Amino acid sequence: MRPLREFPETARRRIRGVLCDIDDTLTWHDRLPAVAYAALERLYEAGLIVVPITGRPAGWCDAIARHWPVHAVVGENGAFYFRNDRAARRMVRRYWRTEAQRRADRRRLDRIAGRILAAVPGARIAADQAYREADLAIDFREDVPALGLREADRIQAIFEAGGAVAKISSIHVNGWFGDYDKLAMTRALLREVFDCDLDAHAGEFVFAGDSPNDAPMFAFFPNAVGVANLRQFEDRLTARPKWLTEGEGGFGFAELADCLLRGRPA
Q1: What is the DSSP letter of 146?
Q2: What is the DSSP letter of 4?
Q3: What pLDDT, on the 0 to 100 scale, is given for residue 263?
């Protein structure tokens, strides 16, 4: 991983969109710093496509799509994208799986939840679970005394033994059924909303993240960026971003915005 300050100007000028995780990428120490929100707004006002790509729930993503300076949001690790069509006064909600599939998935996830809670002392259903439509989030270090990564691995293994996909973030282990992830739904969003073939234009987008569940995005985007706190997971990453900020969390994201907007025509 190379320092972000070495990102060459010629490559920076090609960037047309910024995709980013939220928890511990935009936020830091359980809050959204003003500089991170301002960075989103500066990127949006500069004409770049801005899309958070998060594991957070549908209820949160509705508010983000409505009120944040973003063009859309991909939520629950790729289960859907929401886009606020302000001209039509309509929220566009595009899901990977049908409503019937999601209902069936929920019953299976509820059974897995019982096995996880019985097997991993200290783990809890995430506080935001009531607002989720497609996945199950197990809290191992957000609103509970922090558990170690060994416990997170155990949670992931129980999900997988039940046939689910599972990913570890900086605070939750998320499990779901379906052949999607953050990258698959990002591809769909850019194709359907922006008429952009992401495979042909990956070099025109930056993805910023902070944890192992961002590895597919780090592997795909040639100019992926990690915020500095990614270093705590470095030995667990299956793919690393090309660039690394000096700042942590939202402060690192603000550093990224400064880098991309430096010298850019107003």
Answers
A1: P
A2: G
A3: 75
